[in-house]
Amino acid sequence: MDAVRTAELVAAVDRDADATQRERAVAPARSRGRTGPGPAGDALADEAGLRAAFLAHGSELLGLARRSLANQSLAEDVVQETFTRAWRSRRRFDPSLGTLRTWLFAIERRVLIDTVTRQTKHRTEPLDDADGVPVEDRVDAALLGWQVATVLDRLDPDHRHVITELYFNGRTSREVSTLFGIPEGTVRSRAFYALRTMRGHLEALGWNA
Hints:
Rna Polymerase Sigma Factor, Chain: A, 2 domains, Arc Repressor Mutant, subunit A, 73% helix, 9 helices, mainly alpha
């Protein structure tokens, strides 16, 4: 997925977020002030909880690791280390601050950075010097690309096709209208609702504007 096009799409989602954030600012904060672990706080309380977390999120974590490292074996090691660290620090998981999935992805991000840094030390020419991109930025770019690709797959096909043509194929709304044989207003409407839906899915994956 083209990094520039991805960035443009995320910027559009971010702009759409402004109205949503204003709406939330005046809405009752129903979950604020909650203390003590709820059901989610016990998610990693025992080995059964750890297995459940792996079944629920392991494939997504592996997908990100593969995208970041382009190496199946290393990706599997990253996922294993992610759950090892999660188990060791399970008492620090606070469900009032975010979902278990978000917490696991934050841990995996750190594991990926450590892994890439380790791999870099074994190269004749460090990766950062070779491409001018810091390790953290490379991992974050891979994470964002994976998140956007995942969210696009979850869109209604009509909405996904419009977003793909507008943001990845660089067509204008008039060109998309002609391509699909629909009114230009319908193109704009589908794009609007697609961006709104994408934001919800991205937030569920731990993305923050």
